[in-house]
Amino acid sequence: MTAGTLAWLLSAATFAVAMSATPGPNNAMVAASGANFGFARTLPHMAGVTVGFPAMLVAVALGAGDLMRAAPMLHGALKWIGVAYLLWLAGRIATARPAVAAAGSRARPFTFAQAALFQWVNPKAWIIALGAVATYTTTRWMVVQSLLLAVLFVLVTLPALAFWTMTGVGAARLLRSERALRTFNRVMAGLLVLSLLPLLREF
Fold it and tell me: Is pLDDT larger for residue 187 or for residue 156?
Protein backbone atom coordinates (compact mmCIF):
# COMPACT_ATOMS: atom_id res chain seq x y z
CA MET A 1 0.00 0.00 0.00
CA THR A 2 1.45 3.35 -1.02
CA ALA A 3 1.69 6.35 1.29
CA GLY A 4 -0.87 8.17 -0.87
CA THR A 5 -3.37 5.32 -0.63
CA LEU A 6 -2.92 5.07 3.15
CA ALA A 7 -3.41 8.81 3.53
CA TRP A 8 -6.58 8.61 1.41
CA LEU A 9 -7.95 5.75 3.52
CA LEU A 10 -7.23 7.53 6.79
CA SER A 11 -8.80 10.75 5.57
CA ALA A 12 -11.86 9.01 4.14
CA ALA A 13 -12.28 6.89 7.29
CA THR A 14 -12.12 9.99 9.49
CA PHE A 15 -14.77 11.64 7.33
CA ALA A 16 -16.99 8.54 7.52
CA VAL A 17 -16.71 8.34 11.33
CA ALA A 18 -17.46 12.04 11.75
CA MET A 19 -20.48 11.92 9.44
CA SER A 20 -21.89 8.68 10.87
CA ALA A 21 -21.48 9.40 14.57
CA THR A 22 -22.69 13.00 14.77
CA PRO A 23 -26.36 13.83 15.44
CA GLY A 24 -28.61 13.58 12.44
CA PRO A 25 -31.93 12.11 11.29
CA ASN A 26 -30.77 8.48 11.27
CA ASN A 27 -29.19 8.65 14.72
CA ALA A 28 -32.13 10.48 16.29
CA MET A 29 -34.54 7.96 14.80
CA VAL A 30 -32.71 4.85 15.99
CA ALA A 31 -32.35 6.39 19.47
CA ALA A 32 -36.10 6.93 19.60
CA SER A 33 -36.66 3.42 18.23
CA GLY A 34 -34.34 1.93 20.83
CA ALA A 35 -36.21 3.69 23.62
CA ASN A 36 -39.61 2.60 22.37
CA PHE A 37 -38.99 -0.84 20.87
CA GLY A 38 -35.67 -2.06 22.29
CA PHE A 39 -32.37 -2.96 20.65
CA ALA A 40 -33.41 -6.22 18.96
CA ARG A 41 -36.49 -4.77 17.25
CA THR A 42 -34.41 -1.83 16.00
CA LEU A 43 -31.84 -4.10 14.30
CA PRO A 44 -33.67 -4.11 10.91
CA HIS A 45 -33.73 -0.29 11.01
CA MET A 46 -30.00 -0.22 11.77
CA ALA A 47 -29.24 -2.75 9.02
CA GLY A 48 -31.32 -0.80 6.50
CA VAL A 49 -29.33 2.37 7.13
CA THR A 50 -26.02 0.49 7.14
CA VAL A 51 -26.73 -1.02 3.72
CA GLY A 52 -28.94 1.68 2.26
CA PHE A 53 -26.62 4.66 2.63
CA PRO A 54 -23.51 3.03 1.10
CA ALA A 55 -25.68 1.80 -1.79
CA MET A 56 -26.94 5.35 -2.27
CA LEU A 57 -23.37 6.68 -2.16
CA VAL A 58 -22.30 4.33 -4.96
CA ALA A 59 -25.39 5.28 -6.98
CA VAL A 60 -24.54 8.96 -6.56
CA ALA A 61 -20.97 8.31 -7.68
CA LEU A 62 -22.18 6.40 -10.74
CA GLY A 63 -24.66 8.96 -11.98
CA ALA A 64 -27.41 10.02 -9.61
CA GLY A 65 -25.33 12.98 -8.49
CA ASP A 66 -24.88 14.14 -12.08
CA LEU A 67 -28.62 13.83 -12.63
CA MET A 68 -29.33 15.99 -9.57
CA ARG A 69 -26.87 18.64 -10.74
CA ALA A 70 -28.29 18.57 -14.27
CA ALA A 71 -31.86 18.91 -13.01
CA PRO A 72 -31.84 21.46 -10.17
CA MET A 73 -35.64 21.43 -9.97
CA LEU A 74 -35.60 17.68 -9.31
CA HIS A 75 -32.94 18.16 -6.66
CA GLY A 76 -34.94 20.94 -5.03
CA ALA A 77 -38.14 18.90 -5.10
CA LEU A 78 -36.40 15.94 -3.50
CA LYS A 79 -34.95 18.22 -0.81
CA TRP A 80 -38.33 19.60 0.20
CA ILE A 81 -40.01 16.21 0.05
CA GLY A 82 -37.29 14.97 2.40
CA VAL A 83 -37.73 17.91 4.76
CA ALA A 84 -41.50 17.48 4.82
CA TYR A 85 -41.16 13.75 5.49
CA LEU A 86 -38.67 14.32 8.31
CA LEU A 87 -40.94 16.92 9.91
CA TRP A 88 -43.82 14.44 9.68
CA LEU A 89 -41.66 11.77 11.31
CA ALA A 90 -40.66 14.23 14.04
CA GLY A 91 -44.32 14.88 14.70
CA ARG A 92 -45.04 11.16 14.88
CA ILE A 93 -42.17 10.63 17.32
CA ALA A 94 -43.18 13.59 19.49
CA THR A 95 -46.82 12.53 19.78
CA ALA A 96 -46.45 8.75 19.82
CA ARG A 97 -47.45 6.88 22.93
CA PRO A 98 -44.43 4.77 23.97
CA ALA A 99 -44.92 1.24 22.68
CA VAL A 100 -43.79 -0.26 25.98
CA ALA A 101 -46.64 1.53 27.72
CA ALA A 102 -49.30 1.16 25.05
CA ALA A 103 -51.27 -2.05 25.33
CA GLY A 104 -52.05 -3.29 21.86
CA SER A 105 -50.06 -0.45 20.32
CA ARG A 106 -49.96 -0.48 16.51
CA ALA A 107 -46.63 1.35 16.48
CA ARG A 108 -43.87 -0.50 14.66
CA PRO A 109 -40.16 0.16 14.19
CA PHE A 110 -38.80 0.80 10.71
CA THR A 111 -38.26 -2.27 8.55
CA PHE A 112 -35.00 -2.90 6.66
CA ALA A 113 -36.54 -1.69 3.39
CA GLN A 114 -38.07 1.44 4.93
CA ALA A 115 -34.77 2.45 6.51
CA ALA A 116 -32.82 1.79 3.30
CA LEU A 117 -35.26 3.75 1.12
CA PHE A 118 -35.41 6.56 3.68
CA GLN A 119 -31.82 7.51 2.78
CA TRP A 120 -33.04 8.88 -0.55
CA VAL A 121 -35.16 11.53 1.20
CA ASN A 122 -32.70 12.21 4.01
CA PRO A 123 -31.05 15.62 3.43
CA LYS A 124 -28.01 14.73 5.53
CA ALA A 125 -27.48 11.54 3.51
CA TRP A 126 -27.49 13.55 0.27
CA ILE A 127 -25.01 16.07 1.61
CA ILE A 128 -22.67 13.36 2.88
CA ALA A 129 -22.90 11.35 -0.35
CA LEU A 130 -22.34 14.34 -2.62
CA GLY A 131 -19.55 15.64 -0.39
CA ALA A 132 -17.82 12.27 -0.23
CA VAL A 133 -17.94 11.77 -3.99
CA ALA A 134 -16.73 15.30 -4.70
CA THR A 135 -13.89 15.13 -2.16
CA TYR A 136 -12.69 11.54 -2.21
CA THR A 137 -13.09 10.33 -5.78
CA THR A 138 -11.37 11.10 -9.05
CA THR A 139 -12.62 10.53 -12.58
CA ARG A 140 -10.01 7.84 -13.21
CA TRP A 141 -10.72 5.80 -10.08
CA MET A 142 -14.38 6.72 -9.53
CA VAL A 143 -15.76 3.18 -9.28
CA VAL A 144 -13.01 1.77 -7.08
CA GLN A 145 -12.93 4.77 -4.77
CA SER A 146 -16.70 4.93 -4.40
CA LEU A 147 -16.81 1.22 -3.54
CA LEU A 148 -14.06 1.73 -0.94
CA LEU A 149 -16.02 4.64 0.51
CA ALA A 150 -19.11 2.44 0.68
CA VAL A 151 -17.16 -0.25 2.56
CA LEU A 152 -15.81 2.35 5.00
CA PHE A 153 -19.31 3.63 5.69
CA VAL A 154 -20.60 0.10 6.28
CA LEU A 155 -17.81 -0.47 8.82
CA VAL A 156 -18.43 2.73 10.78
CA THR A 157 -22.19 3.22 10.39
CA LEU A 158 -23.32 0.08 12.21
CA PRO A 159 -21.29 0.77 15.40
CA ALA A 160 -22.44 4.40 15.38
CA LEU A 161 -26.08 3.38 15.03
CA ALA A 162 -25.65 0.73 17.73
CA PHE A 163 -24.32 3.41 20.09
CA TRP A 164 -27.27 5.71 19.43
CA THR A 165 -29.74 2.83 19.74
CA MET A 166 -28.22 1.81 23.07
CA THR A 167 -28.49 5.44 24.17
CA GLY A 168 -32.21 5.17 23.54
CA VAL A 169 -32.41 1.79 25.29
CA GLY A 170 -30.55 3.19 28.29
CA ALA A 171 -32.85 6.19 28.42
CA ALA A 172 -35.87 3.88 28.43
CA ARG A 173 -34.44 1.96 31.39
CA LEU A 174 -33.88 5.15 33.34
CA LEU A 175 -37.12 6.82 32.27
CA ARG A 176 -39.56 4.14 33.37
CA SER A 177 -42.76 6.15 33.37
CA GLU A 178 -44.82 6.79 30.25
CA ARG A 179 -44.55 10.52 30.87
CA ALA A 180 -40.75 10.36 31.01
CA LEU A 181 -40.60 8.36 27.77
CA ARG A 182 -42.89 10.86 26.10
CA THR A 183 -40.45 13.59 27.12
CA PHE A 184 -37.55 11.61 25.68
CA ASN A 185 -39.47 11.14 22.43
CA ARG A 186 -40.09 14.88 22.23
CA VAL A 187 -36.40 15.57 22.80
CA MET A 188 -35.50 13.15 19.98
CA ALA A 189 -38.12 14.77 17.74
CA GLY A 190 -36.62 18.17 18.52
CA LEU A 191 -33.14 16.84 17.72
CA LEU A 192 -34.48 15.53 14.42
CA VAL A 193 -35.86 18.97 13.53
CA LEU A 194 -32.71 20.78 14.68
CA SER A 195 -30.57 18.46 12.58
CA LEU A 196 -32.27 19.87 9.49
CA LEU A 197 -31.32 23.49 10.12
CA PRO A 198 -27.60 23.39 9.24
CA LEU A 199 -28.24 20.93 6.43
CA LEU A 200 -30.67 23.21 4.63
CA ARG A 201 -27.96 25.82 4.25
CA GLU A 202 -25.92 23.34 2.21
CA PHE A 203 -28.50 23.10 -0.60
Answer: 156
165: containing domain: 51-101+111-200
In a domain, 129, yes or no: yes
Q: Which amino acid is at 44?
A: P
CA distance 117 to 49: 9
Question: CA-CA distance, 189 to 32, in Å (whole number)?
Answer: 8
Structural domain includes residue 84: yes
Which carries the bigger pLDDT value, residue 186 or residue 129? 129
Residue 1 lies in a domain: no
Q: How many folded domains does the chain comprise?
A: 1
Dist. CA 55–CA 126, nearest whole Å: 12
DSSP state of 202: T
Closest CA to 133 of 3, 16, 1, 49: 16
pLDDT of residue 201: 58
Do residues 151 and 51 make contact, with C-beta atoms less than 8 angstroms apart?
no
**Does residue 121 lie in a domain region?**
yes
CA–CA gap between residue 167 and residue 189 (Å, rounded): 15
DSSP string of 129-166, one letter each residue? HHHHHHHH--STTHHHHHHHHHHHHHHHHHHHHHHHHH
